[in-house]
Amino acid sequence: MQVLDDLWIRIAVWFRGLLESFLPPWAVQLTMDVLGILLLIVLGIVVVLAFTYMERKVIARVGDRIGPNRAGPFGIFQAIADAIKMLTKEDVTPTNADRWLFLAAPIVVIIPAVLLYAVLPFGRGMVGVDLNIAVVFVVAMGGIPILTMLMAGWASNNKYALLGAFRTVAQLISYEVPMVVALLTVVLLAGTMSTVGIVEAQASFPFALVTPVAFVVYMLAGLAELNRTPFDLLEADSEIVAGYFIEYSGMKFAMFFLAEYINLFMVAGMITTLFLAGWQWPILPSWLWFLIKVVVVIFLMMWIRATFPRFRIDQMLGFAWKALVPVSLVNLFLVALVAKVLEPGWARTGVLFVSNLALLAGAIAIMAQVARKREERARAAGEAAIKRYYGSEVR
Amino acid sequence: MYGKGIAKGLWVTLKHIWGTYAKDIKKFPRRYAPGGIAKRTDYDLYGLFTLQYPEERYEMFPRFRGALMHLRNPETGEPNCTACGACERACPHGVISLEGEGKGKDRKVTAYRYDLGRCIFCRLCVESCNFNAIELSREYELSRYKKDFILELDDLLKIGDKYGIHKTGEAWGVTE
Amino acid sequence: MLKTETITINMGPQHPSTHGVFRMVLTLNGETIVDLKPMFGYLHRGLEKTSESRTYLQAVPFTDRLDYICSMSNNFAYAVAVEKLAGIEVPLRAEYIRVIMAELTRLVNHMLAVGFLFNDLGAWYTPVVYAFRERERILDLFEMASGSRMMCNYIRPGGVAADLPAEFLPQLRKMIPHLENFVREIRFYLSDNEIFKARAVGVGFLPADMAVAYSITGPVLRASGVKYDVRKAEPYSIYDQFEFDVPTQVAGDVYARYLQRLDEMDESLKILRQAVERIPDGEYATKVPSRLRPPKGEAYARIEAPKGELGFYLVSDGSPNPYRWRNRPPSLINLSALREMCLGHKVADVVTILGSIDITLADVDR
Ligand code: SF4
Ligand code: SF4
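A: This is the predicted complex of the input protein with iron/sulfur cluster.
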């Protein structure tokens, strides 16, 4: 067990030893770092291949279909076939596009996505850098794609792209707020900003149990950050066709695609790290636990995507500002209070869990009330019109 | 309760995911079975329903309206067509053009051109024919690499030979 | 100086959710619609004029192509018009077959309408696929009876093209409970969905009086609360012998239209159940000469097609070709209220509203 748990670390240590036998120390460090970076990038690409395949399968299965089944056994090479198609496709730049911005956007979008992997603890002792402000790093890096999407949308010189870019900025910036507040809640509970520290703080209870509200808020905000249904307005294909990357094709489009799935893994990884106790939990090796949890979270996201329609942009922003932000702020206050009064342990978890559920129920009740009002209004308008037409109450 | 609809939706789609896998397992190692008409009538709400086309094919219903074919007289082996021209007049798109020779009972078709590319498979031509000479076949893979969509009498007879029928409208309950 | 500008967007003719080659010129203030101009005609095939140079029978396949989703209803309306013009009696069995086919068509159409509404709402094809699955099965029945899945050319002046095959009725009997299940599942899956409600409730409101003023018909009208259904208002064929309700909604918004369609599917299934039980034996058609020469005169016949009132106006001058062949397409006329419904809403709503009107561009442009 121990061997399996440490598998990757042992390989690294052994490899380092191998290098040290014939290289000076600085060269060893350099090689290891470069290799680490390469490994993460390769991981990123593998993740994309795996999860595009998975996404197709899940969506197909929801629709009673088989999904990709031509390329290779069970269609597992479908993603590779797609990649080849993407790479060999004609690369079109619209005539009046802002050339440099248009070129730069897909490159800039991928960098923060890959950089984020550095702070993700994949297993016990398996983290690129154990930054003590990892959480801040995640938030900061998560902000860059917004800029690139605006770049892409603006540079394309296409109205749909521009609309998509408008939406991007409005949506992502609004959802950044509840996300950060939810993060803050976790940081308060863990008492550290390092991702490794946060995972270690969840040894007894995953934070999803301690503060379900923060979990739900982070999950929803994560869906919004990823532009996934029900928040996939940026690329709502039935409204603004493909949003900000409508004009991109071939390799450049593939870059956006790549970034999207790398981010998917990243957000799922962050949810796992922050709320589902990361690589903790017994029996299985730590890295396997991490992977399992990530896949489950991603499956949940795909399942949601395959099931629901999307929100409208104003509703979505309203949801962020009127529902998620207040709820997460109240939750932050609550957590701060309880964490101050009670020591970590059963009592604290219990109190927080119950109060969180109450908070959630309250928020849902208010939302239900609002929805009912809307329905009543719509009904009243209809009734008035019917009365106008028939001259009396006829049903 | 607010949120119930979301939970219901997720439940339905989960059942569908499970249903497809259940069907997969039931059919294990399997996949491509040639499906017949029976397959189309297998109703259950969950489970795979798509057809893996080139490997699996549905059997067409007997009335299926595909490309036109000419039928032969079972005794003489000659085409039944008497070049009366009724089909030519009945066709709403002028798809058919024909030539014949002879008079009265001896009249025979010499050339029959059928423009597959313009045919809408309405079967009005067949309905107008009183000599059991033509019928729509169950051919449905009609694409061509070249634009040779005009089928001559021989081609039409060849299709007819595949089906080995000598009477029009058997599947339609209207043999004359 | 800070100033805002409206932008003009051409939605379509190539756009994923305009249901065909339909173009809307949107003037947007941010994302809010200030003006909307529908433009159509990209699919104009001149079917009316073409049909005038064909015989009455030859025009039947053309009606298939008006609203290709409900070809059976189109055949039906045309057949009724020709029969009215020429004074043809239709045998009872044929009437039953026609009713069965028309109600199946209504099911097909409403399934697709509901499914594609969700597609427009961004539900990633899942409701559409469920709808398609059931639709395919109904199309199987059509293929079994008429030889073609969509271009049925089955209901003819005087009756139907051929009698039902032997397997048809047992198959349909097996299918009805299945379809009821499907409607139930769709209700369970989508009706309560909060996201859908947020998108649909109060959106695209069409007041009852305005709907009547625009002569909107079909589910869109009934969703606004006007109880008008040609099957009840002016019974044709044998609809007066069936027991069914005309469901209506109150709110007149996208959500009401969605519910309306589901309710209508239930009613159609009710009619189907009765028809399958009572269908008599007998002739399936009266013989009509292929070169029919109706007496001089004119006739207008209308039926309740799935999308609304479908009418055919035929003028005969005594020759085998109609002198005038005119069609009242429900899609086109329902579309005329699009602008009123959309003003003040967001871009995303335009798509939803268009989906909820349920048009077929082939029917709009003819
Ligand atoms: S196919 Fe039939 S209708 Fe046509 S020319 Fe021959 S015999 Fe006459
Ligand atoms: S099927 Fe219809 S279109 Fe084709 S040849 Fe016969 S009559 Fe003409």
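Chain A touches chain C through 50 residues (CB under 8 Å). Chain A is about 70% helix and 0% strand.
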